[in-house]
């Protein structure tokens, strides 16, 4: 069977799709381009914007392929699948499987049964209370030459921030066991992986649910960092209310823990944070930032911000701008608040008019671009290692341009004579130029 996966949304979805692809390959299936596929899998996200529309228009495209081959069918997974559920079957009869994030473990077998005609349709939408281990595919999930891998440490979220749909679509928090996580990490590193990103909706509360066995996130981090051969360790996402002092200090103690942290602030006004049910205030946020910078002065901080949350005044928004400047985030993702079905903020008033929210977003993004530019400019002259991800899309001149990342995750483009063979290698570089969102490096030593 030939399949094609389209993924929307966060790194968890990207990772889920990678796992699903390897699990299907273990069954003899083959991943192909959209044109040749017999099975179309859409892994969806409903955090923002108009996610359902996006999925429906993708399914419209699948319908066109159906005309060519009537055995073609589709599966819809992820957050939109969890919300719309069996509704997809009525609207798009060629959708034969829907699965939520807890149902994905059963998706490969369900797809196999449907493809073999042993089952007409299936809906894997139940939430589980404990983390369900997934089968290990024949090929590790990060068998590619990038030598980077994601590892799930938990699923779901218990926080119910007032704007967020995640607790409804991904269910309650379920931690995976530390043994299973460590086994997977060791296996990956033995297989050549040099960089691991631990994934969870709120990694700082790892182990604090029914699946916990008394191992904290800080302890888990230490154990993973100690795996011989692991050059870079990252984790995402963090919630400021849960980040422990031990985790903050780990940035100064674990040499392979990368000097970057994504710490969603969402807003700079205590009043708005309270309405968002974030359970921290700016004083606490700033003390975390101080702690991080004490532990690791070169740490790069990034964040998520929402503008136009119900009740946000111009003064509240001004506080967000002030905080963005004060913390000096190297980059941020900023979004206009949008109602998600069933979340608490839907009933909060007054709503901020759309034009006002757009105008605030623009002001915020202009400020951020200036700060980003300053941060990158300050790195010119620094020496570091760039972990090569492949050829860069932009090529200019005779030398070949490669794209890599420094330990903080910044893109570093390096011109080199090699046309192949450097992906997955560390190249020592000196930063010679700062672009708008990336750096340019000059090779200073032998790749390792
Ligand atoms: N409206 C706008 N942004 C949202 N996010 C989550 N829910 C919403 C919403 N309803 C943003 C938050 C979160 C990121 C993943 O998406 O900033 O951190
Ligand atoms: Fe959503 Fe808040 Fe959970 Fe993050 S911590 S997934 S924003 S509910």
UniProtKB/TrEMBL annotation:
Residues 1-116 form the MTTase N-terminal domain. Keywords: 4Fe-4S, Cytoplasm, Iron, Iron-sulfur, Metal-binding, S-adenosyl-L-methionine, Transferase, tRNA processing. One of its GO terms (cellular component) is cytosol. GO terms for molecular function: 4 iron, 4 sulfur cluster binding; metal ion binding; tRNA-2-methylthio-N(6)-dimethylallyladenosine(37) synthase activity. SMART domains: Elp3. [4Fe-4S] cluster 1 binds at residues 10, 45, 79. Belongs to the methylthiotransferase family. MiaB subfamily. NCBIfam families: miaB-methiolase, MiaB/RimO family radical SAM methylthiotransferase. Its EC number is 2.8.4.3. Residues 377-445 form the TRAM domain. It catalyses: N(6)-dimethylallyladenosine(37) in tRNA + (sulfur carrier)-SH + AH2 + 2 S-adenosyl-L-methionine = 2-methylsulfanyl-N(6)-dimethylallyladenosine(37) in tRNA + (sulfur carrier)-H + 5'-deoxyadenosine + L-methionine + A + S-adenosyl-L-homocysteine + 2 H(+). This is tRNA-2-methylthio-N(6)-dimethylallyladenosine synthase. Binds 2 [4Fe-4S] clusters. One cluster is coordinated with 3 cysteines and an exchangeable S-adenosyl-L-methionine. It comes from Pseudodesulfovibrio hydrargyri. Its cofactor is [4Fe-4S] cluster. It holds the Pfam family Radical_SAM. Catalyzes the methylthiolation of N6-(dimethylallyl)adenosine (i(6)A), leading to the formation of 2-methylthio-N6-(dimethylallyl)adenosine (ms(2)i(6)A) at position 37 in tRNAs that read codons beginning with uridine. The lineage of its organism: Bacteria, Pseudomonadati, Thermodesulfobacteriota, Desulfovibrionia, Desulfovibrionales. It is found in: Cytoplasm. Residues 143-374 form the Radical SAM core domain. PROSITE patterns: MTTASE_N, MTTASE_RADICAL, RADICAL_SAM, TRAM. The keyword tRNA-binding does not apply. [4Fe-4S] cluster 2 binds at residues 157, 161, 164. Monomer.
